[in-house]
Amino acid sequence: MSEYSTDITALNERIAESSLFIEDVRKEIGKVVVGQSYMVDRLLIGLLTDGHVLLEGVPGLAKTLTVSSLAKVIDTKFQRIQFTPDLLPADLVGTLIYNQKLSDFTVKKGPIFANIILADEINRSPAKVQSALLECMQERQVTIGEQTFKLDDPFLVLATQNPVEQEGTYPLPEAQVDRFMMKLKVGYPTEKEELEIMRRMAGTQKKEELGTVVSPERIIEARNTINDIYIDEKVEQYIIDLVFASRNPAKYQIPELENMISFGASPRASISLNRAAKAHAFLEHRGYVTPDDVRSVAMDVLRHRIILSYEAEAEDITTENVIEKLMNKIHVP
After folding, report:
1. How many domains does the chain have?
2. Are 258 and 138 in a shared domain?
3. 188: number of CA atoms within 13 Å, CB side?
4. How far is 40 from 184, CA to CA, in rounded Å?
5. CA distance 142 to 3
6. What is the secondary structure of 231-265 as a DSSP string?
7. How many Å apart are CA 259 and CA 267, to the nearest integer?
8. Would you say residue 209 lies in a domain?
9. For burial by CB atoms within 10 Å, which of 52, 201, 232, 286 has the most?
10. Do 93 and 132 touch, CB atoms closer than 8 A?
11. Domain boundary among 185, 219, 253
């Protein structure tokens, strides 16, 4: 056996051992959340790669329940912030309050000082509030007055958008949407799942209590382990090909997409694809990345980063159609 094979085998064993808690997390969340394994896994990928998630789905799909359950099972602080048109940046990050006893200003921290944040209906609030949140996401710190405070680690923002109503909303600019590692589209449950949801939620029996199955320190440790996961040069090139084909389809023999894409994916897409593919391999208890890992996360990483042309929109072509075409045409190593 070669030294290379021995290294990969040893790495595989180490990853398999350090990723055991993933099954415990899935099982514990499954006590209160029916189905939604796709959303749970993508939230775990965000958590394990220090990336934020934008989520689009109609109301009632257990988004809040899933996120709050995740916070409970990893023993972290959870905050849900309902974004509204009258929300101010100070309502999010905090403000200075005058203390009459001390004759001085004291800092009152806002709800952003938590580990897992659910920014509900982010497109309901004005640009300055959205910008305040995105600054916290990027810088991992908050400045109130003259003081700067570091945000706790882990720090995950899950922002939701309601695709049904667009009246009175402030859509996030493309450059700001790009700061989210992934954009998920959550669909309705299956008939079997909805029957189980109805039976659980329609009754008045006591709701299941969730226990803590992993510590925040273990999550941070797992992040460092994920950095060691092996990714072959051919798989790295596959990621680059996917991203570059979205910018210049003709060069990759996909001329039919030439007039469909206004702007291709940014360099953040390449970085996010690499990190998300490694985290996906970790969820599968593997020490190396396969092209299937990349393909599994490609839709979520690229969905909000490819801007379609008016021509594509006129022909009812969606971003998903374009990404599928890219994945079908680009050679898989």
Report:
1. 2
2. no
3. 5
4. 11
5. 47
6. --HHHHHHHHHHHHHHH-GGGGT-GGGTTTEEE--
7. 21
8. no
9. 52
10. yes
11. 219
Structural domain boundaries, residue 159:
20-198+215-219
Long-range contacts of 328-331 (CB under 8 A, 24+ apart): 329/245, 329/252, 329/253, 329/254, 330/238, 330/241, 330/242, 330/245, 330/252, 331/238, 331/241
Question: What is the number of other CB atoms lying within 10 angstroms of the CB of residue 198?
Answer: 11
Query: What is the dihedral angle through the alpha carbons of 298, 304, 309, 312, rounded to the nearest 10 degrees?
Result: 60
State the Cα–Cα distance between residues 192 and 21, nearest whole angstrom.
27
Extract the tokens encoding 3: 């030294």
Residue 54 belongs to domain with CATH number: 3.40.50.300
Helix (H, G, I), strand (E, B) or coil at 39: helix
Same domain? 40 vs 183: yes
Residues 233 and 194 in one domain: no
* 48 & 194 share domain: yes
Same domain, 73 and 169: yes
**Same structural domain for residues 159 and 273?**
no
Residue-wise pLDDT tens for the chain (333 aa)?
A: 444 455 778 888 888 888 888 888 888 888 887 777 888 899 999 989 988 999 887 777 777 788 888 888 888 888 888 888 888 888 888 888 888 877 788 888 888 898 888 888 888 888 888 888 888 888 888 888 788 889 888 888 988 887 665 655 667 777 778 889 999 888 788 888 888 878 777 765 556 677 788 888 888 888 888 888 989 999 999 999 999 999 888 888 888 888 888 888 888 999 999 999 999 999 998 888 999 999 999 999 999 888 888 988 888 888 899 899 989 988 888
The pTM of the full predicted model, rounded to 2 decimals, is 0.87
Identify residue 130 by its one-letter amino acid code: Q
Q: Do 191 and 232 belong together in one domain?
A: no
